[in-house]
Amino acid sequence: MEKGPSSSDFEVDSRDLHLQSKVRTLRAVDSARVATTALALLMGITVLGVSANTLAVYDSTHVPSDFLLSLWPDEFNIRPTISLVIGSVIIVLTNIIALCFSKVQSLRSKTVAHTSTTFAAPLVGLAAALIAIIFFYAVNASEEVDTFLSWTCRWETVPMTVQPNWGTLCRQSRAGLYLAILLIPVEAAALGLAGFQLKVEKYASNYSSAARKGSPTLS
């Protein structure tokens, strides 16, 4: 397993305190980026879990409209929840790939692929979260057609001994939505850290090369 950037990556001279400082910064930024990526992965898994469970309950309790005691309205839009499922699947997959390229030495050593993944994963995750949230609110704003959030939270105070348990489904719908919203700043932070990490890596590499060649100290 990769232990993160080390001084050997840039042939650090033990007397070069400036370069050592940059390498320490690089280690800290890399650790923060990996931690942020792991957090995004956990949040994505949670959104996927609660959203998929809501769809599963609907699928198992929904009956045709000609039934007299239907628990769900005839006009019902499940697309907002589906958008959360699709968005969270994309977020989970991209962050798993990013973590693999960050922690597995054989993958991390592939510089071009590692750098591309470092940027692509949070960028794709950010786009997926934004699209899912925008679509969710655009459809959920309708006053004519109910969604999981509007329908289950309308009846959340009605006690149910069997599925669908409106209170539980309402809380799951809210949790999935709020976590998806929080994923936006988390993925944005991961993207920002990736950019800063690349900047520090490039500086340290250029500084080390210049020092070995006897060039003037980089500013």
From TrEMBL:
TM annotation in the entry: 34-58, 78-98, 119-139, 175-196
Keyword terms: Membrane, Transmembrane, Transmembrane helix
Official protein name in the record: Uncharacterized protein
